[in-house]
């Protein structure tokens, strides 16, 4: 299994490189990547909602074995070790870090362009 810290560290390093002019990406491509990330995050959040519903499993009966299975499956969805909601959140966190990198290329570029236009008396 991969270390969940590694993707965060990688994207933090890329954000640092972007801030320091060592990483380049066109503003249009970065904006498209940002939008794709936003869509993916929405999808992951929807899957988290689905997993939360799965925490309330029924139909296993009232025998102790049925109760035990209900608990096992509920905790795989929410609250247990490596549960689906938390795993999906770790993916969301990484994609948010990706968005931070992509936004540096079009938010910062837009601000610079606006500043340059102002300096030359152009529209803001």
What layout of secondary structure does this protein have?
Blueprint: H1 5-19, H2 27-54, H3 64-77, H4 84-119
Helix pairs in contact: 1-4, 2-4
Helix content, binned percent: over 70%
Topology as a string of helices (H) and strands (E) = HHHH
Low-confidence stretches: none
Q: Which structural class matches the secondary elements?
A: mainly alpha
Strand content: under 5%
Measured between the Cα atoms of the first and last residue, the distance is: 49 Å
How many H/I helical runs?
A: 4
Main beta-sheet annotation: none
In angstroms, what is the radius of gyration? 22 Å
Global outline: elongated
* Number of DSSP E strands: 0
User: Mean of the pLDDT scores?
Assistant: 85
Describe the protein in words.
The chain is mostly helical. Helix content is 75%, strand content 0%. α1 packs parallel to α4. The radius of gyration is 22 Å and the shape is elongated. The protein starts with a helix and ends in a 5-residue tail after the last helix. 7% of the residues are buried.
List keywords for this structure.
124 residues; elongated; single chain; mainly alpha; 0% strand
Task: Give a nutshell description of this structure.
This protein has helices at residues 5-19, 27-54, 64-77, 84-119. The chain contains 4 helices and no strands.
